[in-house]
Specification:
114 residues; alpha+beta; five-stranded mixed beta sheet; 2 helices; globular
Length: 114
């Protein structure tokens, strides 16, 4: 898995054999009022198939963030989710990708790197 962040959007790309998944997440700033999560499906090409439903991606990402928060003793409040609608199923993989992003972000903040 490859990770990238610009201090605002945290992204992960998972490529495992024939499967591929991209996830980008943004968080509600500390002290800000939480709003409904904006989910942004990305279409890379006009004719590409839609393999993942936005509502399912949202559910699995929220579940991954909730589990990571419980493991780390913190709360992750999402503001935005970005994914590629033609990425590989199963959609449940986004739970694990979200958890890995959360753990990585938390570790970097603990060491003062991010």
């Amino acid at each position: 898995m490859q990770f990238h962040d610009d201090g605002f959007t945290y992204k992960a790309v998972s490529i495992s054999g024939p499967t591929h998944n991209f996830l980008g997440v943004e968080f509600v700033p500390f002290g800000a009022v939480a709003r409904p999560v904006l989910i942004e499906p990305v279409r890379l090409f006009p004719a590409e198939p839609i393999r993942l439903a936005a509502d399912e991606v949202l559910l699995w990402v929220e579940q991954g963030m909730k589990e990571a928060g419980e493991e780390l003793g913190v709360e992750f409040r999402l503001s935005r989710i970005i994914y590629v609608m033609s990425d590989s199923p199963p959609v449940a993989v986004y739970r694990d990708i979200a958890k890995r992003i959360a753990h990585r972000m938390h570790a970097r903040r603990q060491t003062g790197e991010g």
